[in-house]
Amino acid sequence: MIRAFAAGVASLLATLLVASVVIFAAMQVLPGDPAQVMLGVNARPDTLAALREQLGLDQPLAVRYWTWVSGLLTGNPGVSHTYAVPVSDLIAARLGVSLPLAALALALAVAIGLPLGMWAAARRGRAVDRGVLIVAQLGIAVPNFWLAMLLVLLFAVTLRWLPPGGFPGWDAGAGPALLALVLPAVALALPQSAILAQVMRQSLVDVLAQDFVRTARAKGLTRGQALRRHALRNAFIPILSVLGLQFPFLLAGTIIIENVFFLPGIGRLVFQAVNQRDLIVVQSVVMLLVAIVAVVNLLVGLAYAAVDPRVRRAA
């Protein structure tokens, strides 16, 4: 198990190294000059040259890459070209909105999707099962930004139960802040809950057809008891993979939702940084998302070992 963990950490580090090279190279080939964007099209050449030197854009690519990577390792990837503040401070402030939003959306997706999948699997072939599958297909097909606008029209404009957008900040209290995140979290969670419901249903249907479940039924257990005591633990193995992918996806998916609801999160920061050619912010945020995905994949592998004895024995 220790050797498997060490191999996972080595793979994680290699992934981050390759990703840093790819992300940095991609940022360099994008059209547009950050200094030109900041000063405007009528800027004088000597002013442009002075600003490029101030921003470090006149240095060789290898030097700029090493400066950025070494800054990432120390928690200070550089200074934003647009805001003139450390990128780490910008990201930390925006994560205070995006992380709670993604966590709330994931909690809602699990609370909705898993019970629906279990309910459909326990009644396979009945009207409930077919209804859950239809609803899940609709949930996957509907774009979350369109769903977000419908939620705003219903709950904010018509019923006036929830705020239509904006974020009061955590200084205003946990209640108003969480209230502002409800509609964005629901818009993010519903498509993901549909995916979870489908995966949970199919996984449980497959497990319920196994010999050990039939043996449990033959010993006198009801279908529900066999499902809860024997099938559920084994059915959760593929769910771990889906959950491991959903949290980074939800964090990255806030780019659209945060712009719909005018939330000052990491997604809106990336959107603004791309428009303003603030490359140091864009590449640092993308690198953060890649690191989160890699770490979550490592944790999912460890969770596999905890849930599945076969993985533990192989490790």
TrEMBL record:
Transmembrane residue ranges: 97-120, 132-157, 177-197, 235-261, 281-307
Membrane topology note: Multi-pass membrane protein
Coiled coil location: none
Domain of life of the source: Bacteria
One cellular component (GO) term of this entry: plasma membrane
ABC transmembrane type-1 domain ranges (all copies): 95-300
GO molecular function, one term: dipeptide transmembrane transporter activity
Keywords (A to Z) from UniProt: Cell membrane, Membrane, Transmembrane, Transmembrane helix, Transport
InterPro entries associated with the record: BPD_transp_1_N, MetI-like, MetI-like_sf
Localization terms from the record: Cell membrane
Main subcellular localisation: membrane
Recorded family membership: Belongs to the binding-protein-dependent transport system permease family.
Protein name: Peptide/nickel transport system permease protein
Species, as recorded: Pseudochelatococcus contaminans
